[in-house]
Amino acid sequence: MLHTRHGWWLEEAGEVVPERPLEGDTSADVVVVGGGYLGLWTAWHLRELEPSLDVLLLDAELCGHGPSGRNGGFCETLWGDAHRLREQAGDAAALAVCRASEEAVRGIGAWCEANGVDAWFREAPMLQVATAESQIGAWEETVRAAAALDAAEIAEAGADEIRARCDSPLFLGGAVYRLNATVQPARLSLGLRHVLLERGVRIHERTQVTELHPDGGIETRAGRVRAGATVLAVNSAAVGFPGYGRSLAVASSHIVLTEPVPDVIEELGWTGGEAIVDSRTLVHYMRTTRDGRIVFGWGGGRMGSGARLSTRLERDADVVARARGSLTRFFPQLEGREVTHAWGGPIDVSPTHTPIFGSRGRTHHGFGFTGNGVGPSYLGGQILARLALDRRDELTALAIVDPPRKLFPPEPFRYLGGSLIRRALVAKDAAEDAGRRPGPATRLVASLPRRLGLRLPR
Ligand SMILES: Cc1cc2nc3c(=O)[nH]c(=O)nc-3n(C[C@H](O)[C@H](O)[C@H](O)COP(=O)(O)OP(=O)(O)OC[C@H]3O[C@@H](n4cnc5c(N)ncnc54)[C@H](O)[C@@H]3O)c2cc1C
């Protein structure tokens, strides 16, 4: 098994020739910091709104090689957050966010089609399943929220219906999310990079931004950019910029990938392209690929500490071994089949579980996708492009733009508390998988985020 930082998707998508780093001083109308989906979509939408705009995009490494090139490729709406959004902002505001996120999923498919980018975009429902008695009904509040908003987006489904779509012996029932798609994530991020370059957006790679100026400019190690506005789209690295340290927490997620197993996929009846998540807090997520592999991820990776991004957020043999063990529990037919690749990356956890966009002077930021950034980053790009151009409309009025501020505890409490809670959640899930009730101390610690009004992944 090849256990790397970048993973298989980027390998499959093919190498890119890096753009040269920024050296010296320059200027631009808008400088976008970070070339993952959010920065790339922002640059795209800026040009859509103002075709002659001088947009400069800077990435510390290579665009699309962070989580945007390595994720599970679930291209989701924000309907899974409908109940939280109702709580936070009320019914009309929740519905507006969810509908805008549907447009984002469709927008990505349409963009790929229009720009000749074959990112393996495939629309198919998403299944949320229960794999232990304790998970049954976990979807009820989202199903209820969708119904209260008069939307038929999520429907409860019995074990038979779920197992007709994917016949894992663990699946005990679940819910079907109507609109969802899967993509080859690296083909999407690199496709975006390619199209932007073709359109004349200036990109400098291996260019780390070290300072943001209140007047809209930025500094790098070897240069400086004067700009009318800055967009900060650096995912979990935002914690390293002044003023953002407590706005998010950093967790990690890891993926294992099988060799092509089309016969197993056929046997499971999993031929409809459905993306599947289970209902634990530290989710398992799984899907198939165009060439007949199974992608199996686990959101149970370790926490990051402060602004220092530990290498274990990207490569963690222990977490990968656990994910690999779960893979054959979910699909016993895979016994004896090869797992060819493993990789991982950081997750920017939002204190509200929903992404946050907003402005501080001339700096406009987006972060907090909490493991659901593929679809929503398109919407984030639409929002940040408008904020950078100071154009207000229904998208900049959404409840995910400048929501009431909520902060995580400062370090070291965030890391220590987060790690303690993670450990309790792993223990709780392991007990429930074995059909046992977790002990009272484990239950208490695992319930802390909810009691404190903080939401961890899922
Ligand atoms: C293993 C894994 C599986 C996932 N699965 C899914 C999934 O199935 N569905 C889903 O919706 N989401 C998933 N996610 C989350 C999803 O990948 C992210 O939400 C999304 O990619 C975020 O995009 P981004 O542009 O904000 O961040 P990134 O892709 O991280 O891009 C940020 C960029 O900023 C650059 N940068 C950082 N600091 C600086 C600096 N100082 N100066 C210049 N550049 C800088 C980085 O090099 C990077 O390229 C997963 C994540 C992981 C790690």
List keywords for this structure.
9-stranded mixed sheet, 8-stranded mixed sheet, FAD/NAD(P)-binding domain, 13 helices, 20 strands, 458 residues, alpha/beta, single chain, binds flavin-adenine dinucleotide
Described by the principal axes of the CA atoms, the overall outline is globular
Bound molecules: flavin-adenine dinucleotide
Distance between the termini: 28 Å
Whole-number count of domains: 1
Description:
The strands form three sheets. The protein has a nine-stranded mixed beta sheet with strand order 1-18-14-17-16-15-6-8-7, with helices on both faces. Strands 2, 3, 10, 11, 12, 13, 19 and 20 form an eight-stranded mixed beta sheet that branches. A three-stranded antiparallel beta sheet has the order 4-9-5, with no helix packed on it. It is built from 13 helices and 20 strands. The chain is 33% helix and 22% strand. Helix 2 packs parallel to helix 7 and helix 2 packs across helix 10. The protein has 458 residues and is α/β, with parallel strands linked by helices. The radius of gyration is 21 Å and the shape is globular. The protein has helices at residues 7-13, 37-49, 82-89, 91-115, 140-148, 159-165, 185-198, 262-268, 317-330, 376-388, 413-433, 440-446, 448-451; strands at residues 2-3, 24-33, 55-58, 74-75, 122-123, 126-129, 154-157, 174-177, 181-182, 202-204, 209-212, 218-220, 223-232, 249-258, 275-278, 284-288, 294-298, 339-349, 356-360, 363-367. The protein has one domain: FAD/NAD(P)-binding domain (3-Layer(bba) Sandwich). The relative contact order is 0.18. A hairpin with a 2-residue loop joins strand 19 and strand 20 (363-367). Flavin-adenine dinucleotide is lined by residues 33-39, 58-61, 66-68, 70-74, 76, 208-209, 233-235, 237, 253-255, 297, 344-345, 347, 369, 371-374, 377.
